[in-house]
Design a protein that fits this description.
Layout: H1 3-11, H2 13-28, H3 33-41, H4 46-58, H5 65-78, H6 80-96, H7 104-109, H8 111-127, H9 131-145, E1 148-149, E2 154-155, E3 160-162, E4 168-169, E5 174-175, E6 180-182, E7 186-188, E8 200-201, E9 206-207, E10 212-214, E11 218-219, E12 224-225, E13 230-231, E14 239-242, E15 247-251, H10 257-260
Parallel strand pairs: 1-4, 2-5, 3-6, 4-7, 5-8, 6-9, 7-10, 8-11, 9-12, 10-13, 12-14
Antiparallel strand pairs: 14-15
Helix pairs in contact: 1-2, 2-3, 3-4, 4-5, 5-6, 6-8, 8-9
Organism: Harenicola maris
Family: Belongs to the transferase hexapeptide repeat family.
EC number: 2.3.1.30
């Protein structure tokens, strides 16, 4: 490792590892050289790489890649918290998804990770009062990835969305840190009211595939929502709920369900 590479690794070990994985990927599969160089190795840091990757994915005849990249660069430069959230999300995917073996994979291939990072740019635009542009990001994320996250929703760090198809997160939803969810999860409302109407998901929560959490309710920290459940009432912390409508069926079973990723409901003795 050169002196400059060593300095980068000491300041940003996540980006250093990604670039090492990228060089190894090119060596192992030269046909991917163009993709890997343009997406990773041509950039000076992770923020620029993410901005480029998102702009490439969301570009269309309505909005060019260059304009989208400028927007992404502005967002990621203006708010360093986005970069910290990106790194936490990457590590979360690597730790919790058994199909992920390198930090490089989510950036290049995983639509759940890519959609969340595009949302983060859209959320920054929303907070800056650039609502129409934020809606454009929401629209393109939905069209490209099949994931609909309102730019006003508040989502924490360390988010892992596995498979990710048909995820819906409403306008007033709040998702805490270190949350894991699978495909077809809905954090939605229960009617056409326009006030605070969406769920509040605590830290460390695990939400199974196809679960629907509806209304201005709270899912307590480190709880589990079983696959296919419909949650209509508050859930206390560190509990497991299942069913339609969902009912408490036991404790969460571990201190950090979102990290353990254990979806099995064990019989209570």
């Amino acid at each position: 490792m050169s002196r400059s590479q060593s300095q980068i690794a000491s300041v940003d070990p996540v980006w250093s590892r990604i670039t090492e994985e990228a060089r190894a990927a090119v060596q192992n599969e030269p046909l991917l050289g163009g993709l890997v160089h343009s997406s990773i190795l041509h950039h000076k840091n992770l923020e620029r790489a993410i901005s480029y990757r998102i702009s490439l994915k969301l570009a269309s005849g309505e909005m060019s890649e260059q304009i989208l990249r400028e927007i992404g660069d502005e967002a990621l430069t203006s708010d360093p918290e986005i970069g910290r959230a990106i790194r936490a999300d990457l590590v979360a995917v690597l730790d919790r998804d058994p199909a992920c073996h390198r930090l490089l994979q989510p950036i290049l291939y995983f639509k759940g990770f890519q959609a969340v990072q595009a949302y983060r740019i859209g959320h920054w635009l929303w907070q800056e009062g650039r609502r129409d542009l934020a809606y454009f990001f929401q629209m393109r994320v939905s069209e490209v990835f099949g994931i609909d996250i309102h730019p006003a929703a508040r989502i924490g760090r360390g988010i892992m969305i596995d498979h990710a198809h048909s995820i819906v997160i409403g306008e007033t939803a709040v998702v805490g840190d270190n949350v894991s969810m699978l495909h077809s999860v809905t954090l939605g409302g229960t009617g056409k009211e326009d006030d605070d109407r969406h769920p509040k998901i605590g830290d460390g929560v695990l939400i199974g595939a196809g679960a629907k959490v509806l209304g201005n309710i709270t899912v307590g920290h480190c709880s589990r929502v079983a696959a296919g459940s419909v949650v209509l009432e508050d859930i206390p912390p560190m509990m497991t709920v299942a069913g339609v409508p969902a009912r408490i069926v036991g404790e969460a079973g571990c201190a950090q369900p979102s990290m353990a990723m254990d979806h099995l409901i064990k019989a209570q003795t």
